[in-house]
Amino acid sequence: MTERLFMDDATLASAPAVVLAATEAGIVLDRTPFYARSGGQPGDIGVLRWDGGETPVIDTIKGEGAAILHLPAASATLPPVGTRVEAALDWPRRHALMRMHTTLHLLCVVLPGIAVTGGSVGADRSRLDFDLPEPPTKDGLEEKLNALIAADHPVRAEWVDEAVLDTNPELVRTLSVQPPRGTGRLRLVRIGTDKAPVDLQPCGGTHVSHTGEIGPVKIVKIENKGRQNRRIIVALA
Description:
By secondary structure, this protein is an alpha+beta fold. It contains three helices and 15 strands.
């Protein structure tokens, strides 16, 4: 099992860890700040360093059970099992992904009640697809989105009993992907405060701590992807 440090603290740019397994198919650590690719968010990249060596990590994915695989670059030196390493992220890329992921949650806020049919998070551009017959104007959408960002709402993750989905199924905005169940716990990402809520969604990804951390964004384009499917592409300005 790999302890997922990013689930409780997305600001960790590096962390010490111990190597549990190491092959060309992936390196398993006992704990990691590296996010494993899922839910439309890419896996982290970076480097594992130890006394006498280092291994570039070109992607991070889920392994068997609760393991996380850090994929080494081709022909890279692998750390021996039992080695204590420093797992260091490519922080500028990760932070851009965090800013973009939170932006997509806010995009749901400015299109209330509209189901999400797909999406992906990117460091440069991100997208959400909506079940939306008549999209808003690009300028109007961008203005509302940047106003939410500039309001500097707090963002935090919280854990609840997964049974909350039985009583509040509207928390799930995506039609294509459902939150994993079976562990008894559900991770929610809240934007705003309890008294002044902005958004609340199940999410296992990484986010900024305040919306103001995102900075200005722009709506690149709104594409027609079907009779009622509209793709909205957003980028950091």
